[in-house]
Specification:
Chain B: It is a peripheral membrane protein. Chain B: Residues 20-250 form the ABC transporter domain. Chain B: Belongs to the ABC transporter superfamily. Drug exporter-1 (DrugE1) (TC 3.A.1.105) family. Chain B: It comes from Kribbella caucasensis. The complex is a heterodimer of chains A (273) and B (269). Chain A has 273 residues and is an all-alpha fold. In chain A, 78% of the residues lie in helices and 0% in strands. Chain A is built from eleven helices and no strands. In chain A, helix 2 crosses helix 6 (120-147), helix 3 runs antiparallel to helix 4 and helix 4 (73-106) packs parallel to helix 7 (155-183). The two termini of chain A are 39 Å apart. Chain B is built from nine helices and ten strands. In chain B, a hairpin with a 2-residue loop joins strand 4 (73-78) and strand 5. In chain B, helix 8 (234-242) packs across helix 9. The chains are: A mainly alpha (273), B alpha/beta (269). At the A-B interface, helix 1, helix 2 and helix 5 of A face strand 6, helix 3, helix 4 and helix 6 of B. Bound molecules: adenosine-5'-triphosphate (ATP) and magnesium ion. Adenosine-5'-triphosphate (ATP) is lined by residues 29, 32, 34, 52, 54-60, 99 of chain B.
């Protein structure tokens, strides 16, 4: 009909193309992880908050309050840095939720959702890719710490196992944000919620200040705060003094969070229609 | 048709003469009944035009048929598969170009298509070949490596259509595919529709351009307030309004006659 205007290429491109055997669950998850990593490269802005805040906090707290809080900046950094890792994880995982919310709002996911595939792959894969983001910000925080004189007794093994544990915990944590992303109406609500959750959890913990200096009622909260437990474990790992009990405790907490929020996310994601 | 060679089980081929059947389909948003007891029967093969004024419920219907929205009540089948109970079987047969592009603006054109092809089971290399082939066909080769964010509206639209034909679908939903396209790109979309139909696919097309519907559609349904108010071939629809007017009616006249005074007229076709 309108062949005069169309190119021969169009006709070639339109010759019936075989539907392939669909990829398995793992490959599909892998494709979405790839997508998240590519996006990370394409949208460097995503990284700025994840880098700027932890760096700023590490510098500010160490040099501004370090001596006052711990007697010397070196002693303070020793306590602060493992805490900053946890703080960073809390901060960065929110983006996973934000990205999901943005994708949903923009209709980017419509085509995927109308295709035959293992549904959880999209979210599980995105989360895996996002682990790349945690890895980048964690590495930067550690690198900065080393420059500033952070010399943990646990050595490389201690630091690496500390990073591994915090990544694992971050992965479980990001399911909470994907759940919230599917519940809130706007991305701004999600950002707001993240502040409301993160700041009390991080500041009312042992990340920045030793609980022994706090009034009793606050100390009760701080000591019950899961963030405090994670930070204590991180410090112990980096010092090479972590007990199996501490590590298992964190692993169990991560498993529990995942067991609740991963199915909840998937349930909400499926019923988005 | 060589479809059974393409990995679709032979039993699924051609057992249903209807590409789409809905009965009493309803979807409300809050107080608005977007789709209100819609009955639709779209035969397999050919182009089915889906017309109606803004807010008539076209997109909502397509989203239900594409398994993106769950109907409140009524049933909808695509090639005999229920869109709710058998959503995955439906998804094997369809492809969607929604009213609003569903491509990832952060990625480049080629990344979008490779992603799509990989999800459809193409090997890494074949995915890349297919992506390049489609980009070439849609005159997007120069922009292949650029982030979609920087594409013009028409380029985005073309990429979006390309993403929906990475594999040849049995049923393609095109929700206003030519809105915002220049004449050349619009012609390409027309060409795609014609070629797909030639290969045996069914296309459900919505458009605000009556000349486009006239030119492409074998059958047309006009919907308003979530219901079908007229159905037939373009010629039949014109005849139905010819009675009240003197001149040779166009589809534009049909559309105005139908949706301008919808309540008090009976349109028997
Ligand atoms: N997600 C939604 N939430 C609330 N109302 C909605 C939603 N989607 C559609 N509607 C309402 O449903 C009705 C039908 O909308 P729909 O998008 O299906 O119309 P349409 O025929 O595609 O219109 P257009 O020609 O403008 O694309 C409208 O009144 C619209 O406001
Ligand atoms: Mg619409």
């Amino acid at each position: 009909m309108t062949a005069s205007l169309a190119t021969g290429n169009l006709h070639d491109a339109l010759s019936p193309i075989a539907r392939q055997t669909l990829p398995g669950r793992l490959s599909t998850t892998g494709v979405f992880a790839w997508r998240a990593l590519v996006k990370l490269r394409r949208v460097p802005e995503q990284m700025t908050d994840a880098i700027v805040l932890p760096v700023l906090f590490t510098l500010m707290f160490t040099y501004l309050f370090g001596s006052a809080l711990s007697g010397s900046t070196g002693a303070y950094l020793h306590e602060l840095l493992p805490g900053t890792l946890v703080f960073t994880a809390l901060l960065v995982t929110v983006y996973t939720g934000l990205v999901l919310k943005t994708d949903l709002d923009r209709g980017v996911l419509d085509r995927f959702r109308s295709m035959p595939m293992w549904r959880p792959a999209l979210i599980a894969g995105s989360l895996l890719g996002d682990a790349g983001r945690y890895l980048v910000s964690t590495t930067i925080v550690i690198g900065l710490g080393l420059l500033m004189g952070f010399r943990p007794a646990g050595g490389i093994t201690g630091v690496l196992s500390g990073i591994a544990l915090v990544l694992l915990f971050a992965y479980s944590l990001s399911w909470i944000w994907t759940t919230l992303a599917l519940l809130v109406r706007t991305p701004a609500t999600l950002t707001m919620a993240s502040f409301l959750v993160q700041f009390p959890l991080t500041f009312m913990s042992n990340v920045f200040v030793d609980p022994a200096t706090m009034p009793g009622w606050l100390r009760t909260f701080v000591e019950a705060n899961p963030v405090s437990h994670l930070v204590t474990t991180e410090r112990a790992l980096m010092d090479g003094t972590a007990t199996t009990g501490q590590v298992v405790g964190v692993l169990l907490a991560a498993a529990a969070v995942t067991a609740v929020f991963a199915p909840l996310t998937m349930y909400l994601y499926r019923s988005q229609r | 048709m060589t479809r059974s060679q393409h990995g679709i089980p032979a039993t699924e081929v051609g057992t249903s003469e209807w590409a789409i059947r809905t009965t009493g389909l309803v979807k409300s948003f809050g107080g608005t009944r977007a789709v209100d007891a819609l009955d639709l029967a779209v035969p397999a093969g050919g182009v089915y035009g889906f017309l109606g004024p803004n807010g008539a419920g076209k997109t909502t219907t397509i989203r239900m048929l594409a398994t993106l929205l769950r109907p409140d009540s009524g049933t909808a089948e695509v090639f005999g598969h229920d869109v709710v109970a058998d959503a995955d079987a439906v998804r094997h047969r369809i492809s969607l170009t929604g009213q609003f592009a569903s491509i990832d603006e952060d990625l480049t054109g080629v990344e979008n298509l490779v992603l799509q092809a990989r999800l459809l089971g193409f090997s890494r290399r074949f995915a890349r070949t297919r992506a390049d082939e489609l980009l070439d066909a849609f005159d997007l080769t120069d922009a292949a490596g650029k982030q979609v964010k920087g594409y013009s509206g028409g380029m985005k639209r073309r990429l979006d259509v390309a993403a929906s034909i990475v594999v040849t679908p049995d049923l393609l939903f095109l929700d206003e595919p030519t809105t915002g396209l220049d004449p050349r790109s619009r012609n390409q979309v027309w060409e795609i529709v014609a070629t797909l139909v030639e290969h045996g696919s069914t296309v459900l097309l919505t458009t605000q351009h009556m000349d486009e519907a006239d030119r492409l559609a074998d059958l047309i349904a006009v919907i308003d307030h979530g219901r079908v108010i007229a159905e037939g071939t373009p010629a039949q629809l014109k005849v139905s309004v010819a009675a009240d007017s003197d001149a040779q009616p166009t589809l534009d006249d049909v559309f105005l006659a139908l949706t301008g005074h919808p309540a008090d007229k009976e349109f028997a076709l």
